[in-house]
Amino acid sequence: MAEEVEALSNYFAILKGKALPAFKLARKIRCEQRGSLEEMWEEHRRAAAVILEEGGAAAGRQDAPYSFLDLKLDIAQRLLESCVLCERRCRANRKEGRLGWCRVGAQSRVASCFEHWGEEACLIPSGTIFFAGCNWRCCYCQNFDISQFPQSGVAWGGKEIAGWLDRKAASGAVINANFVGGDPTPNLHTIIDAARNMKSSLPLVWNSNMYMSEESMELLDGLVDVYLADFRYGNDECAMRLSEAPNCLSTTKRNFLLASSHAELIVRVLVLPSHIDCCARNIIAWLGENLPDKAYVNLMSQYRPCYKAFGQPDIARQLKKEEFLRAAAFLQKSRIKNYEIQGLP
Ligand code: SF4
Asked: Which atom of ligand 1 is nearest to the CA of 89?
């Protein structure tokens, strides 16, 4: 097992069998089925408060006939009828076959799944599910063949995903379930269903751009153990021009704070060329002020221009060594306690 990281103590407890992953605990919390969406949210808030109050005390109980996890799935299915899963809030009725901005249908599609050895040391080997489609359009996306083509891959539901993860867990081939894309957010309903069907006790990793709506953040509370979260932009202008993501900064800041209140956080800061002062420095300053000991920060140097990046002069080149060293100096001088700095570009 990788060296323990202070900010990820619960994750390591799950790996050692000393704690249950959040989704297994959620199965033990009894809920009532409700009719309207408003009543369902009311019941959801009641159950979230029970988990907060009881902590791990529910671990010894039987699974409930209708649980917090079942309720989460019912709410997510309702949200698909007027989709607000991410901050775009398209309100497309995906259940009736309409598509929103991300063009991801109600039926999730998996572009690939494999044992990932390229993640942070504490996460490998990671059981990674790559969903097709994304709610951002990063002009430099390395996975654009997956993220920008939501019809790629194969149709998989929660049962298929759970089956694959359980087989990998049983053979010891993976130590966590890592949901990514594109972005996992448009597929939240499928991921909840996978958690309902999983027999293994893999910790759940939400590998995302953190552009979820507040509703999705509520559903992720009690489902996810670790956020493996990109923090890419330090201002809205850069986010809009490079990723077509409006209101990015306020959304991601809000979500980082919400995430830190119910799960553990690995924050990836990919340093973009020319974006040291406008982005990397602002991100590090905010993390140092707001989450100095609650996040494990990974400063990443591997940016390579690809896809449509050559149309944007500021990022149409590799990162320079001196740029990365400046970003690293900001991190080293910040109040952030737990971090790693990748090799020079
Ligand atoms: S996930 Fe986001 S982009 Fe996709 S349909 Fe829903 S609100 Fe729109």
From this structure: 7
Q: Which two tokens stand for residue 136?
A: 């951002």
- Domain span at residue 317? 101-341
**Secondary structure (3-state) at 334:** coil
* Minimum-distance ligand 1 atom for the alpha carbon of 92: 5
Return the CATH number at 127: 3.20.20.70
pLDDT digits (tens, 9 = 90+) for 53-74: 887 788 889 999 999 999 999 9
Q: Is 278 a domain residue?
A: yes
Residue 286 maps to a domain: yes
Among the listed residues 24, 26, 25, the one whose alpha carbon sits nearest the alpha carbon of residue 69: 26
pTM greater than the 0.90 cutoff: yes
pLDDT in tens, 227-285: 999 999 999 999 999 999 999 999 999 999 999 999 999 999 999 999 999 999 999 99
User: Is any atom of ligand 1 closer than 6 Å to the C-beta of 92?
Assistant: yes
Please indicate, yes or no, if residue 12 is contained in any of the structural domains: no
Tell me the two tokens of residue 340. 């790693």
**Is residue 94 assigned to a domain?**
no
